[in-house]
Amino acid sequence: MPDHAAKLAWDDFRLIKAIAEARSLPGAADRLGINHSTVFRRLKQVEETLGLELFEKSRGGYVVTACGEDIVALAERVDDDITGVMRKLAGREISPSGELRVATNDSLLVNLLTPLFGRFRDKFPEVRLDILIGNQPLNLARRDADVAIRATDNPPETLVGRRAARIVWALYGAARQFPEGQGAEAFDLAACNWVSLGEQMGGFKLVKWVSAHIPAERVVYRLNTVLGLAEAVEAGIGIGYLPCFIGDAQPSLTRLAAPEPEFGTDLWLLTHPDLRHSPRVRAFLDFLAAEIAQHRTFIEGERR
Asked: Whole-prediction pTM value?
């Protein structure tokens, strides 16, 4: 096996790995950016070179044989090694330049980060920002992103970074329904309609609180985005908890009560350990931490 495997090029290993992951030739072709017939032809060439059958065709697709598993495992190790080397090289750039992939969510981007990103670009025009929106976990070790900006109390142990602020939530209503200067005690909140994040967002502490304290018939509107939650309160659909940096920035919203510290989450700026010394990553993290520090009292609900 080792003598035969030595005859294979890295592209051959990539091909085998892609077929194993996709379990089909068309799927592998899509991953590699080549056509189906090329994948079929190259697989046959590899199997002839090795004198081994690497896949069995079944109703469920292409299944790796025992011999194929060894080749796939080797391909994965080589891929990890190449990715690791490239990641370390990215950490040795001379000056901040090139593309920086930043993962965050829509509510942070729209209500807080976009102006900060603009100022960063003014200061570092050689750095191009590629913003990835979503809450799903990303593999920073594989360069799915270079930096992740997340609201969490439990950042992954595999990443390094800094806590930039504490995102605090408070109860808000539409200003036209709740005149400024009148607190929650002036209204019968038990009789109000409520809006809330849905059960899909059960990781948020406020979702559990609403489920435990607000009658189900009063929660008339649920959704799975904080950005939409603010719009629902503004539209007068109901009252609801919002991050203070969103609610206090909208004249059309009125804060009905003091912030609830137990609903808060930390705002983290995260990267992979191998990238923390990259000039563009270091410049971005330092710049963003300084900018967020200037807005910390606003984010933490202390200044409106």
From this structure: 0.65
